[in-house]
Amino acid sequence: MATSLSGKIEEFNLIDVVSVVANGSMDGILSVSTDDDIQGKLVFWKGKLVHATYANIAGDEAVAHILSWSHGKFSFKDTRWSGVPTVKQELKHLLIDHSVMMDESTAEFGQSITGTTKIRVKVHPDSLAGFELTSDEWMVISQIQGKCSVAHVIGNLGYTGKKARAILSKLIRLGLIEVLTE
Length: 182
What we know:
Elements: E1 4-8, H1 14-23, E2 28-33, E3 39-45, E4 48-54, E5 57-58, H2 60-67, E6 73-77, H3 91-109, E7 118-121, H4 135-143, E8 147-149, H5 150-157, H6 161-173, E9 177-179
Antiparallel strand pairs: 1-6, 2-3, 2-6, 3-4, 4-5, 7-8, 7-9
Helix pairs in contact: 2-3
């Protein structure tokens, strides 16, 4: 019997959806997309999360990024997958790491900075000349066109969650980018 499940992330938290798939020992692919059409995939085999991709990121890092998305759509399809597993940690450890990351984000910024959080450059590009930034920080700024999601910027660059949070934190503290309310 084929199993399918779909909905909006705003209505069904991804943590809950992932837990249903895992606890149901389901086989298949959970496809996730943000409102600005960033795509991610979580692959399950007998309820175990075995593979994840998002942009050019795979494995545990992709899981961490995808779980942070709070807006968009998901769809689970009961299907066989054959490929090389990329997820190394057990799901319960990935979920704990996710909770810690969200708590740290809230403590630092007063709100959770998720993959679907919209950001924009706060100052005119000509005003940036006086700032001493690393090449990675300049890369992040160069990826922000108008207002866009954190997932869009980080997916294009392929940064780890830890690196992305550190760069965003610095740029926000310097007042170079701002977080837009969702």
